[in-house]
Amino acid sequence: MKLTFEEQDMLDGKYGKATQKSMEILTTLGEIFEAEDMIDVVGVQIAGVSYDNLGEAGLEFLSEMAEDGKVRVLTTLNPAGMDRENWRALGIDEEFAKNQNRALDAFAKMGIITTCSCTPYLIGNTPHYGQHLAWAESSAVCYANSVIGARTNREGGPSALASALTGITPRYGYHLDKNRQGEVLIKVNAPVKGTDEFGVLGKVIGDKLVKLGKKIPYITGIPSASIEELKSFCASVATYGGTALFHMERITPEFDTYPKPSDIVFDINQSDLDKARAELIDDHLEIDFVSIGCPHASIHEIATIAKLLKGKKVKKEFWITTARPTKRIADEVGYSKIIEVAGAKFAADTCCVVAPIKGRFKGIMVDSAKACYYGRAKNKFKVKIGKIEECVEEAIK
Amino acid sequence: MKLSGRKIYKGKNKGKTIVTKDGISFYGGVDPDTGIVVEVGHELEGQSVSGKILVFPTGKGSTVGSYTMYRMKKNNTAPLAIINEKIDTIVAVGCIISEIPCIDMIDISLIKNEQEVVVNGSEGTVEILD
Q: Which chain A residues are Cβ-neighbours of B96 within 8 angstroms?
């Protein structure tokens, strides 16, 4: 790989141990993927934040890097394992909270903004079209590449941290035009509306892509989509298909940048969506937990929930997971009060995927296809997907 | 016999091989406290990879696996070196942060179980001694 003088100095240890280790990670990845050189990134999103995922080993690694490592670019964090303020009310034990805070302190020491959200693009780590990033968080990677038209590979925790401490990433994969072209034409022949339906669509497309061994779909037949619907779709298609980039006709910015694929074409009809939805609803279901905000709820979604909960009482554990800055807006305009008076709980900084709640509930209802996947796989819950209105209804039933 | 591949992480180690044709997921697939492979149905299930030259085609599974390898190194349960046919990012990053010598682009069918070998991560070679 061609390195600049400064990059070579970083690799030789002239900028300290953490920077040197970061350069070893980045040059090795660059060589594996045959990158010619490094490119500057404007932002980093780090995954592997929850102590539930990091464990003592990950924490030790972070502490070592924090000894002399400092970020060179805007860097934010994925959700942690708990709400930093409200963890006791959410049933998180003392020991876990202590360890989670050790991890967050190590990140803070490196100059990372400890926002703890999977939607960095909603709270200020917001790239522009064509900018290069090093993001780890599969749903945000998919959103940045597809909806914004920025460029990032799917980084892991250590490689994203390495980019944060050096400000660069090897130029390969989704950073290059040649790897951003749609591979499969997908015609959606049914109406799709709401975060849950976009999640179901993401599962249908993701499952299909895995079978085909392809990664980049070009989707037609969607007349319009909101930010919330797109973030739900991104999370789902990334979970089920490993997709980091899609094009959606007249919706995403690069839809007409590259030729439309024509070799592989398939249709999605109402029956495909119905079948996938049925797969996201378990039999013998007893719902004792409702969670909205996977990916993290936007202020618009919180407004909707407040409206639905006004004057009602929830009878089940009900979490609204969101970024702390979004929660602060909800506090200011009074949505938080309405929601909390109704008995629902905010879980900022965390979510139902990364919190240490394995086995704590029997059945979870969500509006997110991604949350269904991890609810089953990681937390051993039975799951049901539904519209945001149906989720609220279930909580107050 | 000396085989040449590609350098992934520097360092030189000599030891006995443990070879599998199955991919390895360090996160969930290997117990970091004992170094024993715990993935159900894996060819190496129940065997320890600690202190051996671990030879397998490629890594798989969650990116958290890199941290698991780091934990094994700290627990003294890590393999001495790793030889892959085709490296994946999880194992590559795991070797770098844990400082485990590693090479890839080796035809691993030429390496047998329990052979004495020297892995030279800096050169990208493995020398089979017996």
A: 21, 24-25, 28
End-to-end CA distance of chain A: 61
Q: Residue A174 in contact with residue A153, Cβ under 8 Å? A: yes
pLDDT class of B46 with cuts at 50, 70, 90: very high
A122 in Cβ contact with A323 (< 8 Å): yes
**What is this structure's pTM?**
0.92
Single out the catalytic residue among B4, B48, B50, B62: B62
- Does B109 qualify as catalytic in the annotation? no
Q: How far is B31 from chain A (nearest CA, A)?
A: 13
* ipTM higher than the 0.90 cut: no
Query: Which letter does DSSP use for residue A114 in this model?
Result: -
Interchain contact, B8 vs A28, CB within 8 Å:
yes
Euclidean distance between CA atoms A167 and A275, whole angstroms: 45
User: Is A156 within 8 Å of B87 when comparing Cβ atoms?
Assistant: no
Q: Which of A349, A352, A354 is nearest to A116 (CA)?
A: A349
Contact A60 B63 (CB under 8 A): no
Digit-coded pLDDT (tens) for A86-143: 899 888 999 999 999 999 999 999 999 999 999 999 999 999 999 999 999 889 999 9
